[in-house]
Each structure stands twice: as structure tokens, then as C-alpha cells.
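Lab meeting, item 3. Inverse folding demo.
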């Protein structure tokens, strides 16, 4: 499947989810209108009208009603979500992303946060910002305790991930260790009949800070003959912090830097139908 088709499938899934959430956000009847003179709507009726206009394929009118609601209450999460969806329909992706972010911050319910996160993700996907869209889909998955909604967010996340040529992974850990130097229980060794002692070779206690990051890029378009080719770069840094007891028992000249390490890695992986190979 081409990246463009994959992005289209993601957008379709997001639109379906947004449609369902719009129903959950507001289940109010459409207000009636007076035959003569201007019609004044309360907030609930205004919300219902904006969503109705959006469903009827009138995003410009829905946008106008939502903007009117926001003049009265700039933190109306339902009006902000409706505005974001109207802006998406009008192709105003920057504005839709901003409205969705504001709605997410103003939301007081799970469904409101979900709708906001989906709106931002769809706007970013439309613009080709797939990595940022993945961040918002993760937020969507964490914005609800409903297993069905969480599963739906994860499904769309995987779709964006598959469409994204970039892939970034990272890890961070800080743990205590009784053997930060991979030492031996024996501190003495014999060389040419001479017994030597090295207290620093004994296991030393301390803490290990381990950080790593891997960045991969799909370069299949530049290489023919393979269904998927990914170029990757990885970096890992391990820092050791000795306890004062370890420094005293081993040698006063020992430093934390003596036991740290850094590694860099470059990879090239090609996946063919029914076969996987790496370099």
C-alpha cells in the first residue's frame, strides 16, 4: 500500500470516529425557528444547530454558529470541537489543529478530549505531519478509560505509523546495580609468578543511567527491487555513578567516567515478500 493511500485510509477512519463522537457530544433536538424576526438561541440549541449544519454538509454555516458560541464562552469544548471539524471540512487545517488543541485543553469529559485529539490528528495527517499526528493519537488513547475507544485510537495510531516513513524510538532508565563495572569476585591475579592485586576489578556498587534513541527512515522509493528498505541510526549512552563506599574500597582515583560507554549504530534493513534481511 502506498503512503498516500495509507494516509487516506487513516483520514477515513478518523472521520468515522469523529462522526460517532459528535453524536456522543450532544444529543439534543434541533431547535425551532420563528417565522418572523431574528431567532435567539441558548447555548444548547446553538450547539445542536452547529452540529446539525455540519452533518448536513454545511461547514461554513456550522463554522459561523460555532464562532458565535465561542464569543460568549471561548472555552466551550463542544463549540471548539465543532469548529475544528468544520474547519477540517473547509480545508483549513492549521486553524483546525489550533481549534482542536484549544478544545483538548478546555475539555471536561473523555468524549470531548477524544474528539479534540482526533481533530488535531486528522489536520496533521492531511498536512503530512504524521509523527506529530501519532503524538495526538497517543493522547487520544490515554484520554479515555473505555476499552473500545482506546482500542479504536490504537488502531488508527497503527495506521498512521505504517504510513509514516519516519520511525523514532527511545528509552531511558536509571537503576541501582551491585556490579556496575562487570567485575570479578577475585581481585588478585598472577602474571609470571607475581601476584598482583586490583581492587578496582571487584564488583562495584552504584547507579546506571542508560539512554538510547533510534531513528529510521523508509527509503524504498529510492531503491528498486525491495518492498521495504529502511535506513536507521541509533545512539546509546550509559553513564555510571559510583557510590562513595565503592570509591573508598576500590581506589580514590576511580571516576564515574571510567565506566561509562557510548555507542553509535548505522543499519540498513530490506524486507522482501516472505523474506527479511538486515545489514
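The presenter then showed the designed sequence:
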Amino acid at each position: 500500500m502506498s503512503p498516500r493511500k495509507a494516509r487516506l485510509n487513516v483520514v477515513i477512519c478518523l472521520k468515522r470516529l469523529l462522526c460517532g463522537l459528535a453524536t456522543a457530544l450532544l444529543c439534543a433536538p434541533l431547535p425551532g425557528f420563528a417565522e418572523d424576526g431574528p431567532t435567539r438561541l441558548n447555548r444548547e440549541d446553538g450547539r445542536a444547530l452547529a452540529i446539525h449544519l455540519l452533518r448536513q454538509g454545511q461547514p461554513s454555516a456550522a463554522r459561523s454558529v460555532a464562532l458565535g458560541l465561542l464569543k460568549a464562552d471561548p472555552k466551550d469544548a463542544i463549540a471548539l470541537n465543532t469548529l475544528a471539524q468544520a474547519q477540517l471540512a473547509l480545508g483549513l487545517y492549521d486553524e483546525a489543529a489550533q481549534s482542536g488543541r484549544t478544545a483538548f485543553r478546555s475539555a471536561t469529559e473523555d468524549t470531548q478530549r477524544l474528539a479534540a485529539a482526533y481533530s488535531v490528528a486528522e489536520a496533521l495527517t492531511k498536512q503530512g505531519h504524521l509523527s506529530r499526528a501519532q503524538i495526538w493519537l497517543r493522547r487520544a488513547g490515554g484520554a479515555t478509560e473505555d476499552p473500545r475507544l482506546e482500542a479504536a485510537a490504537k488502531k488508527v495510531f497503527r495506521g498512521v505509523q505504517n504510513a509514516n516513513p519516519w520511525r523514532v524510538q527511545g528509552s531511558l532508565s536509571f537503576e541501582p546495580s551491585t556490579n556496575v563495572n562487570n567485575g570479578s569476585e577475585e581481585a588478585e591475579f598472577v602474571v609470571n609468578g607475581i601476584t598482583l592485586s586490583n581492587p578496582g576489578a571487584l564488583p562495584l556498587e552504584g547507579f546506571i543511567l542508560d539512554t538510547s534513541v533510534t531513528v529510521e527512515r523508509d527509503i524504498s522509493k529510492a531503491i528498486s527491487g525491495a518492498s521495504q528498505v529502511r535506513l536507521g541510526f541509533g545512539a546509546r549512552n550509559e553513564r555510571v555513578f559510583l557510590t562513595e563506599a565503592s570509591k573508598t574500597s576500590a581506589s580514590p582515583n576511580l571516576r564515574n567516567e571510567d565506566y561509562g560507554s557510548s555507542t553509535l549504530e548505522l543499519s540498513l534493513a530490506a524486507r522482501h515478500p516472505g523474506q527479511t534481511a538486515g545489514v
